Amino acid sequence: MGLLLYLIVGGIIGWLASLISGNNLPYGVIGNIICGIVGAWIGGMLLGAWGPSLAGIAIVPALIGSILFILLWRAIAKMISK
Q1: Between helices 28-47 and 2-21, what is the axis angle to 10°?
Q2: Total Cβ atoms within 10 A of residue 9
Q3: Which end of the chain is more exposed for a tag (fewer CB within 10 A), N or C?
Q4: In this structure, what DSSP letter does residue 82 have?
């Protein structure tokens, strides 16, 4: 049950990050889950685990990390497509 909740929270964070940044992620729900989990890792490394936590994911650092991940993803995709 813990893994399922972790994936759901990661998906919601990835979805919120894509709404805030104004960029849709490729691969739909799977892309949102990956973005949320990678963003939680990035945010945890940069900001630590402060703020409210759900399913072992600190919400605020994960959201900030997910937004950074989306922006980095878009920059790399733009460089590759040129």
Answers
A1: 90
A2: 21
A3: C
A4: -
Q: What is the DSSP string of 18-73?
A: HHHHT-PPTTHHHHHHHHHHHHHHHHHHHH-S-S-EETTEEHHHHHHHHHHHHHHH
Report pLDDT digits (tens) over 19-55: 998 877 778 889 888 998 999 999 999 998 888 888 8
What does the block give as tokens for 59? 């919400």
Place of tokens 């900001």: 47
CA distance 66 to 73: 10
